UniProtKB/TrEMBL annotation:
Transmembrane segments: 12-34, 54-74, 86-104, 116-137, 144-161, 200-218, 230-248, 260-282, 302-318, 338-363
Transmembrane in keyword set: yes
Domain Heparan-alpha-glucosaminide N-acetyltransferase catalytic: residue ranges: 10-154
Entry protein name: Heparan-alpha-glucosaminide N-acetyltransferase domain-containing protein
Keyword Transmembrane: yes
The entry's keywords: Membrane, Transmembrane, Transmembrane helix
Family annotation (Pfam families): HGSNAT_cat
Length: 372
């Protein structure tokens, strides 16, 4: 989702915001040990939220920001939208399958497509990007606002009417039954101990609104320019969203795993507030120093994120000791003795953030900007 570096309307603050989200995605996805992480770096158990729960919707918001620049430049917008959506979805599917073999006892065996997870982070990004782009293309920004309201209210209605028992529970939410019926249990995530996909089909609907909100914010700052008034209005809009999220939370709990509509308002609102702060500091105050670390991630966000996933999958193939993968061996041999369980786990994650920063830095120095 990178923008060409030659774009005359490029906002450094948007690169910084996008880069921050990518760096945080790598940080929270690669702890040395999932049993030893600081609470803010883990997801909420169910209802509620932590800073980690904001990372993915912030990335979707950043996708919308980039779209506000790029969509206007497409010569054949529909073809570009469908091509990009299909490619990102396919990359996500291949990443789920990669490295195509896995350990079974002491031998490597081919990973069966019969148990391939269909959805995932990249697949949700693809669908949210594609559907948001189509909504904006056909209905324009004003129509996209109406569509967003309908998506958030409609999703609430679907959970209430199609769920079983507690419609906001792991076992009773309607998305679970839809995913089982369409995707099948063998093609779903099992991180909760049962087949349940936090990037499932139904919960993708409200996530589209995160992209639309990012688009509207990006379009607004382009039209109104880099000034204090723009920053204040964007921040106030974000705070209103946060307030509405907490009001709605009384009836429709904030929940990342089923991507509730109140969660969309919270995450989009906080994204707008943080982006407004970056715009003020970078574009208005002209505080240019110190942002390059995040700017590097923001120039090749999708590629760097994919490569971080590829490396973790490769770790799984390497066995320095019988029965032990390189991932846990690396943490236990280097980082845990160096800093202890919690700090060592954090240091392991920070090491990988730094590693992929070096990749992004090298790409930037070579002026290589990989776009899908």
């Amino acid at each position: 989702m990178s923008l060409p570096t030659s774009s005359p309307n490029r906002f450094l603050s948007l690169d910084v915001f996008r880069g921050l989200t990518v760096a945080c995605m790598i940080l929270v996805n690669t702890p040395g040990s999932w049993a030893h992480i600081y609470a803010p770096l883990g997801h909420a158990k169910w209802h509620g939220w932590t800073p980690t729960d904001l990372v993915f919707p912030f990335f979707l918001f950043a996708v919308g920001n980039a779209m506000s620049f790029a969509l206007k430049k497409y010569d054949a917008p529909l073809a570009k939208i469908f091509k990009r959506t299909a490619l990102i979805f396919l990359i996500g599917l291949l990443l789920n399958w990669f490295p195509f073999v896995a350990w079974s006892g002491d031998e490597l065996v081919f990973k069966s497509l019969a148990k391939l997870r269909i959805m995932g982070v990249l697949q949700r990004i693809a669908l949210c990007y594609g559907l948001a782009a189509l909504i904006i293309y056909y209905f324009k920004p004003k129509g996209a606002i109406i569509a967003s309201v309908l998506l958030l209210l409609g999703y609430w209605g679907l959970l209430l009417t199609c769920g079983q028992g507690d419609p906001y529970s792991l076992e009773g939410n309607a998305g679970l039954f839809i995913d089982k019926a369409i995707l099948g249990e063998n093609h779903m995530y099992r991180g909760e101990g049962v087949p349940f996909d936090p990037e499932g089909l139904l919960s993708t609907l409200p996530a589209i609104v995160n992209v639309i909100c990012g688009y509207l914010a990006g379009d607004y700052i382009q039209r109104k320019g880099k000034n204090t008034g723009t920053v204040i209005r964007l921040a106030l809009a974000g705070l209103v969203f946060v307030a509405l999220a907490y009001v709605w939370n009384s009836w429709f709990p904030i929940n990342k795993k089923i991507w509730t509509s109140s969660y969309v308002l919270l995450s989009a609102g906080l994204a707008a507030v943080i982006l407004s702060i970056f715009i003020y500091l970078v574009e208005i105050v002209q505080w240019k120093r110190g942002w390059y670390f995040f700017e590097v991630f923001g120039k090749n966000p999708l590629f760097i994120f994919v490569m971080s996933g590829v490396l973790v999958k490769i770790y799984g193939l390497i066995r320095p000791e019988p029965g032990k993968g390189f991932y846990s061996w690396f943490y236990e041999t280097v980082f845990r003795p160096l800093a202890g369980e919690l700090n060592g786990s954090l240091l392991f994650a920070l090491f990988h953030v730094g590693l992929f920063w070096l990749l992004g830095w090298w790409l930037d120095k070579k002026r290589i900007y990989i776009k899908v």
